[in-house]
Amino acid sequence: MMGKSHLIIGTGVTLSAMSLLGYPITIPAAAVAALSSLLPDIDEPNSLLVRKALPEPLLRLLQVALIAGAIYLYLAQIAAPPWNLVLALLVGSVSFLPGRKLRHLVMVLIAVGLFAFAQVYDPWNAIAACILIIAVVVPHRGLTHTLYALGGWTALLYFAAEGMKNGGSLWIAGGMAYALHLAADALTRRGITPLPPLPLKLRLKLMSTGTKHGDKVERVFVVLALALVVYTFVLVPFQG
Ligand SMILES: [Zn+2]
């Protein structure tokens, strides 16, 4: 399934379900849901998370945002000089690096920097650093599409957000969106293997990504997710 569909289905259904169940929808919860809906595809070969999920103009926007972030890191002097400059250069350059290995090295260095210097932003520095490390060390496609990864990501959010105001809904938002990604992939011909090394395979073969029929089925699920969002956030408040 395409990143765009995962983003709409995972985020839309998660936020609708949380709202219907009475959980507060905060901006961090929405951000975590959106991120978690895309996170399992982080280990797709030769595709940075964003490249698959985002159209070209949005990728440019992300590069601009990273450069802005780099300038901020430098000026705010979160780390003592010269480390603020080092961190800024790493963040500013990461989305432009050509080689996979080089990019991975820079991502690890940024993660180390976030752990070491950015405690002001706890728990977000830890969450961001963990994502960077996971993106680098996950060996090949498959591991992120398991129940182990779902459990690990949910637990990470649970402990990272402990003690935060309204932080209790973060692990629900992230866990649900991640689970929806796996469920959506289980509909495809490729399927998922949720509990390796058990040979159990989940695939409903409703669609295969990239074919005309597959695209149609995918669009149906996207429309259903959007309908749920409209119902939850437009019709329900209107009635109440
Ligand atoms: Zn996937």
Q: So what's the overall shape?
A: globular
Unreliable residue runs: 46-50
Q: Which ligands are bound?
A: zinc ion
| Computed structural class | mainly alpha
Overall pLDDT level: 84
Helix content: 55-70%
Cα radius of gyration in angstroms: 19 Å
Order of SSEs: HHHHHHHHHH
Give the biggest sheet.
none
Number of strands: 0
Characterization of the model:
By secondary structure, this protein is an all-alpha fold. The chain has a domain at 1-45 and 169-240. 65% of the residues lie in helices and 0% in strands. It has helices at 3-20, 27-38, 49-53, 56-75, 83-93, 100-117, 124-137, 147-160, 170-186, 212-239. Helix 8 packs antiparallel against helix 9 (170-186). The longest helix is centred in the C-terminal third of the chain and has 28 residues, at 212-239. It is globular and about 55 Å long. 30% of the residues are buried. Residues 46-50 have low confidence and may be disordered. The structure holds zinc ion. Zinc ion (ZN) binds at residues 40-41, 145, 181, 185. Zinc ion binds at residues 40-41, 145, 181, 185.
Could you write a compact summary of the structure shown?
By secondary structure, the protein is mostly helical.
Task: Map the helices and strands.
Elements: H1 3-20, H2 27-38, H3 49-53, H4 56-75, H5 83-93, H6 100-117, H7 124-137, H8 147-160, H9 170-186, H10 212-239
Zinc ion binds next to helix 9.
